[in-house]
Automatic annotation (TrEMBL):
A motif (Histidine triad motif) lies at residues 106-110. The keyword Cytoplasm does not apply. This is HIT family protein. InterPro entries: HINT, Histidine_triad_CS, Histidine_triad_HIT, HIT-like, HIT-like_sf. One of its GO terms (molecular function) is methyltransferase activity. It is an enzyme of class 2 (transferase). Residues 13-123 form the HIT domain. One of its GO terms (biological process) is methylation. Pfam families: HIT. Keywords: Methyltransferase, Transferase. Its EC number is 2.1.1.-.
Length: 150
């Protein structure tokens, strides 16, 4: 698949939103992406950015699609931030797979405005550094590098 061959899944809620079968609060749209307010509004302005072709997750992107979709995210993020002078930061989140909290299996990026450290949004990263030594890090490093294509 390339970025220039859009495809749709008739059972996908985001594909239905792209086609206009389900209404959305669209804030940005062009030939490659659609950005609209997340119905849950984790914080005010919580926006989803989706490619206008059905890809289930980050693992299904090719370089062309990634380049075209990712290039639009900063512009949309800046617009969300500029919309409210109380926004002091933003989480950009992409979940891949059910275990990673992906609930709609059409790739999407959450732009979650941050108003303070008490704005009811949390991400917890446990520090497991004490469980690793140089050998462990090197083993992980080499295993990942072995699967990178030139």
């Amino acid at each position: 698949m390339t970025a220039f061959e859009p495809k749709f899944d008739d059972d996908c809620i985001f594909c239905k939103i792209i086609k206009g079968d389900i209404p959305s609060y669209t804030i940005y749209e062009d030939d490659m992406v659609k950005a609209f307010l997340d119905i849950s509004q984790g914080t005010p302005g919580h926006t989803l950015v989706i490619p206008k072709t059905h890809v289930p997750d980050i693992f299904a992107y090719d370089a062309d699609l990634a380049s075209l979709v990712f290039a639009r995210i900063p512009k949309i993020a800046r617009a969300v931030k500029a919309s409210d002078d109380r926004i002091i930061g933003m989480n950009v989140v992409n979940n891949n797979g059910a275990v990673a909290y992906q609930s709609v299996f059409h790739s999407h990026f959450h732009l979650i405005p941050r108003y303070s450290d008490k704005d009811d949004f949390r991400m917890i990263f446990k520090d497991n550094a004490k469980n690793y030594d140089e050998t462990d890090y090197t083993k992980l490093q080499n295993a990942i590098k072995a699967h990178l294509a030139d």
